[in-house]
Amino acid sequence: MPIDLTYSPDVQALIEKTRVFVRDEVLPIEDKFLGNVADAGGDELRVSLQRAAKDAGVFAPHAPIEYGGAGLNMSDRAPVFEAGGYSLFGPIALNIGAPDEGNVHMLAHIASAVQKEQFLAPLAAGDMRSAFAMTEPAPGAGSDPSALTTAAVKVEGGWKIDGRKYFITGADGAGFFIIMARTAGKPGDRGGATMFLAPADTAGIRIVRHIGTLDKAMIGGHCEVSFENVFVPDENVLGAVDEGFSYAQVRLGPARMTHVMRWLGAARRGHDIAVAQVAQREGFGSKLGDLGMVQKMVADNEIDIAATRALLVQACFALDQGLYASNETSIAKTFAAEAIFRIVDRSIQMCGGLGVSDDLPLARLSREVRPFRVYDGPSEVHRWAIAKRVVGAAKKAAKEAAK
Length: 403
Hints:
Layout: H1 9-32, H2 37-40, H3 43-56, H4 74-84, H5 90-94, H6 100-110, H7 113-125, E1 130-133, E2 151-155, E3 158-169, E4 176-182, E5 193-199, E6 205-210, E7 222-233, E8 237-238, H8 244-280, E9 282-283, E10 286-287, H9 292-320, H10 326-351, H11 362-369, H12 379-401
Helix pairs in contact: 1-3, 1-4, 4-8, 6-7, 6-8, 8-9, 8-10, 9-10, 10-11, 10-12
């Protein structure tokens, strides 16, 4: 089978337009406010940047064409999202940031026609933001989603939801929530979850607090949210009842890969800054970039960038074939989360004191990319899942051979 790693002229043009827009329009704002989106204006900034992105023809490249996007598949998203992620505010401007990008993807695949008009259309257009409410305080759902404790009980005309969610990105200011709640079984059971769509002004939904975290570029923060006697009508059930965990896979694999795309862009910016620095700065009788130890860091960064891209391409290809690609996405996510941090960390080291200062963006890039080793599944959980699949396949093969 021939392998073609080129992009169409339309995608190449979009990559270049995105690169220019982010560097000319977005990076100066990020640098002025040191990557803190709240200080930069929060939702007012988002509206302004998204208007500029629409004017530049780079807005919502992932969204379905009928909802104003470019309708890119996963493979074509990779270089465009990387170009957008070159600035920490780039994903906000392009409407490709978490959790909205993942929610657009999932709604496009699962939502009914009526739900698409009510929720997907304004989300894709940037008229509102959204939040995906699954994670809970211990002992509830976290790395193990089967521990889900938030409960939905059937009532006349709909469902009543009670529970508490934790680390819900973008919750403050979201226009609606996608709520994962248990509709069958008990915590620890693998099935029995359902997704519900609820406007943020629904009675019983309350933002309890913002949870302070390392990263400062996620609009709407990471919040603790309470759901108390929240009524959701039957027509706002997303997909089928009790099938929430399987529907979540429609979102989670692609969302992990788009995280890789965006933060690879951020890491590449860090690398570019460090290389420019060592190519010019004198030390110990030569340019720093001519010293062996510095050259090793430059080379290791190049290797990590190339390897991350290669794993990303493979995972996106599998997703575009309609596969869950659980192994491919776990491998790519785990490697990338660690490689991206290494790239930024080496870049800091190459720049010395400037690297840990606010005179360069490297320190804030480090703060932003470090949580990726936890977000969307810690590296340890992905390693466990990868090994479980491989060992399980070996056990099955041994059993078949013994027959």
